[in-house]
Specification:
The chain is built from 4 helices and 7 strands, in the order βααβββαβαββ. With 154 residues, it is of the alpha+beta class. The longest helix has 17 residues.
């Protein structure tokens, strides 16, 4: 089950800390774009969790960029839940939320290192394509931006 939930729930905080440790271990500090807890509490961010029988499987967020644009943020699946379709379900859910809100463009930033290849493959399989850096992202060897144009309404 995927639902909006506060990112300051104890088990969520633990998974977000794992997400931040992963980002810090795989990317130079100046290219870690993962949101911390205060960033996820921003009113422009819709934060969601994926749970099964109460157990936290993964998290993801949608940040409103204005002008019918949004960004996927904080996508992370618990190690024990990987390979079960949690990430795909979260992306589907967040894209549906964006579409219901009238968003026409959804972007994301992910790493270029080998550890990010599963994420890159997932996003590409869901219709996201490489794009130029947007917002505060820059051209650099550590970041890959991807985007998807959405059809109006559902």
């Amino acid at each position: 089950m995927i639902a909006v939930e506060s990112p300051d729930t104890p088990d969520v905080v633990e998974l977000l800390e794992a997400h931040l440790r992963f980002a810090a271990a795989t990317s130079p500090a100046e290219h870690v774009h993962a949101l911390d807890l205060s960033g996820l509490l921003d009113p422009a961010v819709t934060f969601c969790t994926a749970r099964a029988d109460g157990a936290l499987l993964g998290v993801g967020a949608l940040r409103d960029l204005g002008e019918a644009r949004a960004e996927l943020k904080s996508m992370h699946t618990a190690v024990a839940a990987r390979g079960r379709g949690v990430g795909r379900a979260m992306v589907d859910h967040l894209v549906a939320v964006a579409q219901a809100r009238g968003v026409r463009w959804v972007g994301l930033e992910t790493g270029t290192m080998e550890e990010f290849l599963p994420a890159q493959r997932l996003y590409a399989s869901m219709g996201f394509e490489r794009c130029a850096p947007f917002d505060a992202y820059t051209v650099n060897p550590y970041s890959l931006c991807m985007a998807k144009t959405l059809e109006p309404g559902r």
